[in-house]
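Hey, quick one: can you model this chain's 3D structure?
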Amino acid sequence: MTTTELPDDYYAAAPLEGSRTAAMEYLRRPGPVYRVGSTWLITSYDGVRFAQKHPELFSSARAFDMVANAIKMIPLAIDPPKHADYRRVLDPMFGPKRIDAMEPDLRAQVRSHIDAFAPLGRCDAVADLSYKFPTQAILTLFGLPVEHLPQFLDWATGIIKDANVTNLGQEPPQRVIDCSMALFGFLAEQLEAKRSQPGNDMLSSILALDGDDAWTDVEILGLCFLIVLAGLDTVTGAIGYSLLNLATNPELRQRLIADPALIGPFVEEVLRLDGPVPGVPRLTTADVEVEGVTIPAGSAVMLMLGTANREVPAAADAPHEMNLTGKPTHLGFGGGIHRCLGSHLARRELRLTIEEFHARIPDYRLTGEAHTLWPAGTLGLQSLPLEFEPC
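Sure thing. Here's the predicted structure for all 391 residues.
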């Protein structure tokens, strides 16, 4: 099959400011596999799933070394076989039982943020809620100081939003390097404090591991670095798009209020259709054929989760429409061995946000424009102005 080659700015020109469906169709149009500048895009569901199932051919470690090379993010930037050792320790710590135990605190946190603006009759759901709650949840998870929320947001924004997502072989922008090093330094200080005064939190649990399971300080910092970054911007984006869908579709909102059991399927469909992660980087370790196209060894690749989600088999009849009655399925949390470690926490944050928002503010409307920041490593709204009756 002939390789389609497009200029560097093709990816960045996707019309994300308009319809997400139009943007995904634009990115699918050149074919299931094509090259933009020096980066290969795999856009089809089958192609993305093939890459996810073959981490020996599509290296996550080498790709993420190019995105944020200040510290190796554990376990995302680790390839087999060492990757399995990390997941064996971490999966139970991020599993449903742990998240169930956190739910009362998480619910109280999101409720307190809503309580702060509910009497005003208006809010920016991004600045007032979707930035604050995920950060507080992760800082609580690790037992880190909540008062550092603004600084965490600045570092995370600098690393994720300013990363060069379409030319992975290039040196990261200086702001990405500066923010990465600042976050690394802060986490190192907090690690020392936690070692001298452990608490009932996940970071203390990891520090308590011994024997063959014991981690080095660099490994623990790599985990902290990953979770702070991956758990902030992505959940912030997903909360924003969830509330945007509900603010602009009163009928859908009333369905969820009347039947809270639909919140779960709604969350899954938001992640499928409006997921905050358009694609994830990989680097090929050998020549590999995908969808009839040969991608050379050493190539930067983006697995386009956003386009692949429009081809999931369960949504074949209506790939661009939200379906709350079908079996939820999507690649919003990735797939294969690198499936998102924090998926259970993210789902719980989204469900609790919708439950508590509707419990206090069942009727609300969009009063301005909701712009998506693009191009960027993750998708999110710059603001989401809402109005409602003061309560």
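One thing worth noting: The radius of gyration is 21 Å.
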